[in-house]
Amino acid sequence: HKGRIVEFFPKSRGRSRSHSPRP
Hints:
The chain is mostly helical.
């Protein structure tokens, strides 16, 4: 679930490689 968490929570990893819906 770590790879998908970045998609929903980019701020968690600092926008690693997914779109940034939440700045």
